[in-house]
Specification:
By secondary structure, the chain is of the alpha+beta class. It is 39% helix and 22% strand.
């Protein structure tokens, strides 16, 4: 049952990781070779961010231009769209993993339940969560696919009875 199943039983333990100084093109190739959508970025043993395919796609995507409105003959740029343009430009120009990664990560302990992982993914809108031991060292990663695989196993077990 997912409510009681610890993350340690479904997480991936052979985790692909990157350094902030790694080349973005090499990182893209490594993600493709391993057939994963993202991986933690580790600096000095600490997880400092997450590199995902969505971070990398920005390099090839069109930059979102700021939204401009006209009010009484004046042109006003919406602040949120200006921030998005700035962020897109920074990522598009980045050449290292540290420049394009998403800083900060969500983490759980190996003893957390799969239900807790699924809840955190849903609430925070993330696709993967790093699993850290008590000392803060990376011991695994759990992704949405790992949880779906476990749900299917439970369905199959019930159907097989």
């Amino acid at each position: 049952m997912l409510r009681e199943l610890p993350v340690s039983q479904v997480m991936t333990t052979e985790v692909l990781t990157f350094s902030p100084a790694d080349d973005v093109r090499d990182a893209m190739r490594a993600l493709l070779r391993r057939d994963v959508d993202g991986a933690p970025v580790v600096d000095g043993g600490a997880v400092v961010g997450m590199l995902s395919t969505s971070d990398l796609i920005v390099e090839e995507a069109r930059v979102h231009l700021p939204t401009v409105i006209t009010l009484l003959g004046a042109y006003l740029e919406l602040p949120s769209s200006k921030k998005r343009l700035d962020a897109d430009m920074e990522k598009a120009l980045g050449s290292t993993v540290g420049e394009v990664m998403t800083a900060g990560v969500h983490s759980l302990s190996p003893d957390a339940t799969v239900e807790e992982a699924a809840t955190l993914m849903h609430e925070e809108g993330v696709d993967r969560i790093v699993v850290l031991d008590d000392a803060g060292a990376l011991v695994g990663i759990i992704a949405r696919g790992d949880i779906v695989r476990e749900i299917v196993r439970e369905f199959d077990a019930v159907d097989g009875e």
